[in-house]
Amino acid sequence: MAKKYHVYGMGNALVDIVTEVSDEFFKEHSIEKGIMTLVDESRQHQLTNAIHLPSADRQCGGSAANTIIGAAQFGASCFYSCKVANDEMGDFYHSDLTSHHVSTNLSPGAHEEGITGKCLVMTTPDAERTMNTFLGITATYSVKEIDEAALKDSEYLYIEGYLVTGESSLHAMKVAKGLAEEQGVKTALTFSDPSMVKYFKDQMAEVVGSGVDLLFCNEEEAMLFTGTETIFQAVEALKRFAQSFAVTLGAKGALVFDGTNEIKIEPFPTKAIDTNGAGDLFAGAFLYALTHGKSYAEAGRLASLASSKVVSKWGPRLDEDQAKELHDHLFG
Q1: How far is Cα 110 from Cα 108, in angstroms, rounded to an integer?
Q2: Which domains are present in the chain?
Q3: Backbone phi, psi, residue 146, to 5°
Q4: 274-323, pLDDT tens digit by residue?
Q5: Phi, psi of 261 (to 5 degrees)
Q6: 57-70 pLDDT, tens per residue?
């Protein structure tokens, strides 16, 4: 019997504040470029005061949220499990998420007391993105946010690697994965960011456990997790942890393993102006394709094409018309 949802995602709910800054801004404010850094509320307040907020774009985000919205824009039926507070940002997040046709555990007017998480996404002229994140209430993400009925009625569980930073959210990751395995729901995990693998490797290994059905990571994350020095060694080592996987290689495309064969996914030519969300959309397009009868090679091509388009514009996602255009370009 067909499942209600193609993908059930779980991850942080963060209102993304997207802006362009210079390298000088990083030096001036002692920001480490190119990675995600967790900050407290006062530090983020200091940074948002330093940028020109009216020129910044605001949207519901978080790594897995971007993936789930991307999958939904291509036509997948999706559910997103997250946590926001009873503030203006929380109401904005909820309405923005549902406007993208994503079902959720959130209930209007029933958000907990607190502060909704925010992520300041700073892009430099070289197209590299740097994130400073204040988790807010999503730092207390727990098993209470898991909707068991929706999870059981899904083809894939998609877990955001950023959740490993909290004790209760790490527990929720493992509980959700266990529930999925009991119900025959395939498990997919993204490592999310090199810093998650570098500083939380033991916790990430706990989530991987005896293995996942599908893993998403980039080249650096693959080598960090496997303790290898080349991408070829990493790909071989990853086969012990995942039935299948996709390793993104930036401008060089991607490497996909379908459980039997390694498939080189060629990049699509593009001029990158903002790499924010490229990996998230890659996963979203890939999951859409796999849940709609496409092969791993076809899924990789759609994901590569989608990533090439999203890095050529501002922001971490396409709109529905753009997604349909890409789908029709490849599949008619």
Answers
A1: 6
A2: 5-11+62-106+139-331 (3.40.1190.20)
A3: -85, 125
A4: 777 899 999 999 999 999 999 999 999 999 999 999 988 877 889 889 99
A5: -115, 145
A6: 888 999 999 999 99
